[in-house]
Amino acid sequence: MKRIILSGGGTGGHIYPAVAVAEALKRRFGDDVELLFVGAEGKMEMEKVPALGYRIVGLPIAGLQRRLEWRNLLVPFKVLKSIRMARRVIRDFGADVVVGFGGYASAPVLWAAQRMGVPTVIQEQNSYAGVTNKILGKRAKRICTAYEGMERFFPADRITLTGNPLRGRFSKEGADRGEALQYYGLTAELPTVLVVGGSLGTRSLNEMMKQWILDTGGKAPVQVIWQTGKYYEREMQAFLAAHPAAHVWQGAFIDRMDYAYAAADVVVSRSGAGTVSELCLVAKPVVFVPSPNVAEDHQTKNARALEAKGAAVVVADAESRTRAMAQAQALLEDPGRRSAMSCNLELLAKPHAAEDIVNELIKVME
Question: Which of 115, 130, 247, 302 measures 20 to 30 Å from 142, CA to CA?
Answer without folding.
Answer: 302
